[in-house]
């Protein structure tokens, strides 16, 4: 395990701590709109996970280490326990934290991911290769980068999400995420650590898209192994990006969960 990374983190509001963890290629800014709904009654933290956003770059993406990053953030902010919600890769970080440091957890919500290994190399490897292939030095503006990316990534929403990582530094465009590291660590990111055990003494809810393939029969079995008391909720017709595709339902779901009586 690598040493804990000091994560960049946006924070707002006051009250019980709520930590929102983003997915692959994302940042804490992904939660900015939804976070506003909770800041009246919660201290909301939106960290950038390692190798994402404004957080440091490092070679390893092991989920135990990434969970330790979040624990270190809680310690640095003087937070004993938090409600933790994570989407996709962030959901795996949240689950790893729950299983390794349940003393730091009050409630856990996991969004469209299960505690298991996946094989989405064709999808994610393709996205990383598409970003790596762009000649940023020859791109006059963001539109030109988008046009190049469109030759390999047809979905506009996915392109716009990836382009949140495009930054201007001096006279040139750069990707703020370390693409070579993400490509190398993709098997680890898609994987799931062995030996993390089970959690039964905290409220846990899994929400997933009915039109997504991330939580099927194998995913539900994996959830039952690690989180046997968890609730599992499906959103019919919704894909992997629940918080973007059904934002009001997702916000209501999260609010219902974090305002339950303290366990």
UniProtKB/TrEMBL annotation:
Keywords: Hydrolase
Hydrolase in keyword set: yes
Pfam families: Abhydrolase_1
Entry superkingdom: Bacteria
InterPro entries, A to Z: AB_hydrolase_1 (IPR000073), AB_hydrolase_fold (IPR029058), Epox_hydrolase-like (IPR000639)
Keyword Hydrolase: yes
AB hydrolase-1 domain boundaries: 16-247
GO molecular function: hydrolase activity
Protein name in UniProt: Alpha/beta fold hydrolase
Organism (species): Spiribacter aquaticus
